[in-house]
Design goal:
Mean pLDDT: 94
Order of helices and strands: EHHEEEHEH
Number of strands: 5
Strand content: 15-25%
Number of domains: 1
Shape: globular
Low-confidence stretches: none
Distance between the termini: 45 Å
Structural class: alpha+beta
Largest sheet: 5 strands, mixed
Helix content: 25-40%
Number of helices: 4
CATH topology: Aminopeptidase
Strand order of the largest sheet: 1-2-3-4-5
CATH architecture: 3-Layer(aba) Sandwich
């Protein structure tokens, strides 16, 4: 298994891998998520992510792409209520279904943690949807803990 920085050449692989998790989200919460598509908007968004200097995009491959991690270096300045905070925010960690529970996610997350340490960032953040128990277990196993919770309520019959 090889973990490397993704390049523009990985666009198609990222779109293919992302479709797995997009479908999972759309099936669990159809009122919020669209089914996967190769729309021009999605292609441009991934291109922008791959070009952005604050992005970290890692690709896992084993003769073929089997997973990726997309994270963003964030610097929130101090405000009247909060201290300055530098973190690495993990937006996506996706592993193709047939490669799950084989250590791919752990390798991607470990590399992201190494990159954060190399950049003197001591905090990694992410969010997990309430329905995604598999992801919650994975992150808990790797030392992540809940520090904030969001709630919702639909009104007007939605």
């Amino acid at each position: 298994m090889r973990i490397r920085n993704a390049t523009a050449d990985d666009l198609e692989a990222i779109l293919t891998l992302n479709a797995f998790v997009q479908r999972q989200h759309a099936e669990a919460m159809p009122q919020l998520f669209k089914q996967p598509t190769d729309s021009k908007q999605l292609v441009e968004a991934v291109r922008d992510i791959l070009k952005a200097p604050e992005s970290l995009v890692l690709m896992a491959e084993d003769a073929e792409p089997v997973g990726y991690l997309y994270a963003e270096f964030q610097n929130r300045p101090a405000s009247w209520v909060r201290l300055e905070l530098q973190s690495l925010f993990v937006h996506h960690l996706v592993v193709a279904p047939k490669f799950r529970r084989c250590g791919v996610g752990t390798l991607l997350l470990s590399r992201a943690m190494d990159v954060a340490r190399d950049n003197r960032i001591s905090r990694i953040e992410l969010d997990v949807w309430a329905f995604n128990s598999e992801a919650k277990q994975f992150y808990a196993k790797h030392g992540f803990e809940v520090f904030n919770e969001r709630m919702q309520r639909w009104i007007n019959g939605s």
